Amino acid sequence: MSHVTAPRAFVRTTLITPKSAPRSSMGVLVRMRQRLFAGWLSAGLTIALLSLIFFTLPALVRFLLIDAVWTGTDREACDPMKVGHAVGACWPFIAAKFAQLICGFYPADQRWRVTVVFAVAVALLAPLLAPNLPYKRANMLAFFGVFPVLAVGLLRGGFFGLPSVETQLWGGLLVTLVIAVTGIVASLPLGIVLALGRRSPLPIVRILSIVFIEFWRGVPLITVLFFATYMLPLFLPNRWTVDALLRALIGVVLFSAAYMAEVVRGGLQAIPRAQFESAMALGLGYWQMTGLVILPQALRLVIPGIVNTFIGLFKDTTLVLIVAIFDFLGQLRAAFADPNWATPTTLFTGFAFAGFVYFCFCFAMSRYSQFIERRVEVGRQR
Amino acid sequence: MPLEARIRRSVPQPPIYNNPQVRAAFYQVALLAAVLCLGYAVFTNARDNLAARHIASGFGFFENTAGFGVNQSLISYSETDTYGRVFIVGLLNTLLVAAVGIVFATVVGFIVGIARLSNNWLLARFAAAYVEVIRNLPLLFQILFWYLAVLGALPAPRRSISLFDVVFLSNRGIIVPRPMLGSGAGIVIGSMVMAIAMAFVLHILAERRRSATGRKSPSLPIRIGLIVAPPLVALAVWGIPITLEWPELRGFNFVGGDRIIPEFVALVVALIIYTASFIAEIVRAGLLAVPRGQVEAAYSLGLRPAAALRLIVVPQALRVIIPPLTSQYLNLTKNSSLAVAIGYPDFFAVFAGTTLNQTGQAIEIIAITMGVYLAISLVTSLLMNWYNARVGSVKW
Questions:
Q1: Which superfamily does B83-164+261-391 belong to?
Q2: Using the beta-carbon criterion (under 8 Å), do B136 and A358 form an inter-chain contact?
Q3: End of a domain among A144, A164, A184?
Q4: Which helix (H) or strand (E) holds A311?
Q5: How close A5 comes to chain B (CA, Å)?
Q6: A197 near A258, Cβ under 8 Å?
Q7: CA A139 centroid distance within chain
Q8: Same domain, A225 and A346
């Protein structure tokens, strides 16, 4: 006989009081608490940074816009004594020196030539940078082959009734861009040759390439510029006189070719062995294999690296002011020395403007390089 | 006649100029000949040009009197000293800038790099803005900015900005108290150095014992005692041998104290800020390169976040960080040559600048300058490669 025991189970007869809803993990306030006030340290940092913004941003806006002087012809316009209140940025200084900052001492009636060169450069470069436009090959030929010759011819003049303009008169942003573009355009082929040489099976070729690359990478650019300025003339036959700008360009090209070689080598190393082997199996010789199979792939991979080298070179062109070539920064420094514009805020105004220009160029280029990098990555993942 | 040789004879052989080995040898000999010809042309041109311009050659100028002043020198220097001494003064100044710059750029770079990965949104944005702005402005621009706009805008010494009456900022530089070493100072400092070295050795021994036996040695209190006790004993015996000479404003300038020249400050600050932005990116990439699973595995083994960071994440991140960090150190050292633009007497400015101007011996001086920078580069990369081989030998 089984005998029914009392049930062990407990059956609740009343409802539990409902729990309140879990705290929302969404919404602006919660996100703010998580991302800005997660703990004592985080909250302290947030408050410190907020107060930093609170103190500096209004001051900056006041200096650049509200208290700034916009019109004037000389330092009187920006003199706090004359104006009667605190003076911010002295923009008429930039306006007065603008032509000098862009083209240096290029004769005023010939400046249209600089404008034409800039316009042609933009017209050729813009379609080259857009990845989806056709005629890349013709475009590249135009920009890297035809344009440099045309630009130098137009800028130097001396034919077809164009007055000749010596390179000593060139300056400002013009010289900055001439040096940077020449440096890249000339150093790319040299860098490719050096990179191939460094990976060559021929020992003498390899050793010479390594020595060349490591030598130029081991010394600062300024010593290279001094080498080109003071030492190179001694190495050339006596009757050759080399223009100061050309000497600096030679130095820059030798220097950046070494860096370019390392960038290209990175691309060559990223090509799978099978590509080399299948090219050889198809019966291609060294140059056919390199030119038709390896380089087209490798160079596409290293476009971001090339752009980054270009950014570095663009920034490094400022060094030519040490060998008395007045690039953008050099012209700015020269403009500071003008007693006509000696005001308390001239320096800050000049640096703000020049900083803005350099930042725009470099930032745009670095964003472009990132954009290409993402495209290359997508292409490789397929 | 063996079969092989008979076959070879019957099959037409390719001409000798198509033999790959012959070709390789020919190309290499041709290249070498071209390089040697170039070298010979350079040599003869240089000899003729030097003769035509009556420029002396050789390294005799090292013995000549320099005759120019140098406004910062770590060793005693006067205008009557030789160019050889100028060389050393400049080299020491360059090494000083490089050492100070590398230490602080590393600290700032690590802080900014970690801040970019911070959970705090505002801090991460600040760090990102810092990196973007600083990396996209030329270094020379920044050096000139600090030198002309910031330090140049400081008031004259009479109205200098004082920080607690200890440090004074003016457009003549930064005035700081000068430590004066009395008798016995050498013993006190020496005992401190000895104590730190002993503590370091003890630490290594304790770590070895721990990894061998798993037992922790109570080395920390011993180490602290080692570092603190001997200097205290020395101080008790010889008294305080180091006194500070306080700067004092007399008339238009300061008397006493040490002056850090504004050129040095501008150069070092610009180098630190510039290089730190690159180091920050390297650090960030290194930390992101450690797979997430490593941290999770560490947590599941029971490590606390700080220990996981110190024992698991950082050692692995360092392997990624160190090679590019080396090249940033080299860049900083090479970039210190921009000192010439603001007149800080670094190696480049006094040697390739002033000495070259005065002697005109371009070939020797520029060759030596390049050689010195090459040597610095080589030594740094050797040291870092050695460290890298120690830290980075294991691949994950």
A1: MetI-like (1.10.3720.10)
A2: yes
A3: A164
A4: helix A303-316
A5: 47
A6: no
A7: 22
A8: yes
Asked if residue A102 and residue A113 are part of one domain, the reply reads no
Q: Is residue A76 part of a domain?
A: no
* Residue extents of the structural domains in chain B: 3-53, 83-164+261-391, 178-245
Task: Confirm whether A85 is domain-assigned.
Answer: no
Shared domain check, A344 and A208: yes
Cβ–Cβ gap B362/A202 under 8 Å: no
- Residues of B in Cβ contact (< 8 Å) with A333: 144
Contact A46 B373 (CB under 8 A): no
Of A45, A47, A202, A318, which to mutate for an interface test with B (greatest number of B Cβ within 10 Å)? A318
Closest CA to A331 of A174, A172, A105: A172
The verdict on residue A51 lying in a domain is yes
For chain A, the domain total comes to 3
Q: Kind of pairing, strands B248-250 and B161-163?
A: unpaired
**Angle, helices B362-391/B83-116, rounded to nearest 10 degrees:** 40
Nearest by CB to A42, which of B24, B120, B148? B120
| Same-domain check for residues A201 and A308 | yes
Closest by CA to A323, choosing from B7, B140, B63, B174, is B140
Which of A215, A235, A317 is most worth mutating to test chain B (most B CB atoms within 10 A of its CB)?
A235
* ipTM attached to this prediction: 0.85
Name which of B31, B46, B377 is nearest A205 (Cβ-Cβ).
B31
E runs forming strands in chain B: 161-163, 167-170, 173-176, 178-181, 242-245, 248-250, 253-255, 258-260
* Same domain, residue pair A60 and A125: no
- Judgement on whether residues A41 and A135 belong to the same structural domain of the protein: no
Residue A240 belongs to domain spanning: 91-106+166-381
Residue A381's pLDDT band (cuts 50, 70, 90): low
Q: Tens of pLDDT along B173-199?
A: 787 777 776 666 777 778 778 888 888
Select from B28, B37, B357 the residue whose CB has the most chain A CBs within 10 Å, as the one to mutate to test that interface.
B28
Interface check B374 vs A, CB under 8 A: yes
CA A161 to chain B, closest CA, distance in angstroms equals 37
* B210 Cβ contact list (under 8 Å, min separation 6): B216, B217
Q: With bands split at pLDDT 50, 70 and 90, how would you rate the model's confidence at A277?
A: very high
Residue B137 contacts A where some CB pair is shorter than 8 Å = yes
Return d(Cα B257, Cα B237) in angstroms, integer: 28
Q: What is the mean pLDDT of residues A42-66?
A: 87
pLDDT > 90 in chain B, percent: 22
Distance from C-alpha of A310 to C-alpha of A301, rounded to nearest angstrom: 16
Does A233 sit within 8 Å of B49, measured CB to CB? yes
Q: Residue A318 is nearest to which of B120, B132, B140, comparing CB atoms?
A: B140
Do A112 and A146 sit in the same domain of this protein? yes
Whether A202 and B27 lie within 8 Å, measured CB to CB: yes
Cβ distance of B120 and A35 shorter than 8 Å: yes
DSSP reduced 3-state for B249: strand
A156 in any annotated domain: yes
Distance of alpha carbon B318 from its chain centroid, rounded?
18
Residues across chain A: 382
Q: How far is A319 from chain B (nearest CA, A)?
A: 7
B contacts of A218 (beta carbons < 8 Å): 373-374, 377-378
Task: Give A-chain residues touching B123 at CB under 8 angstroms.
Answer: 42, 45-46, 49
For the segment B215-230, what is each residue's pLDDT rounded down to a tens digit? 776 667 777 777 777 7
pTM: 0.84
Whole-number Å distance between alpha carbons of A188 and A195: 10
| A180 and A54 in a common domain | no
Interchain proximity B377–A218, CB inside 8 Å: yes
* Whole-angstrom Cα Rg for chain B: 29
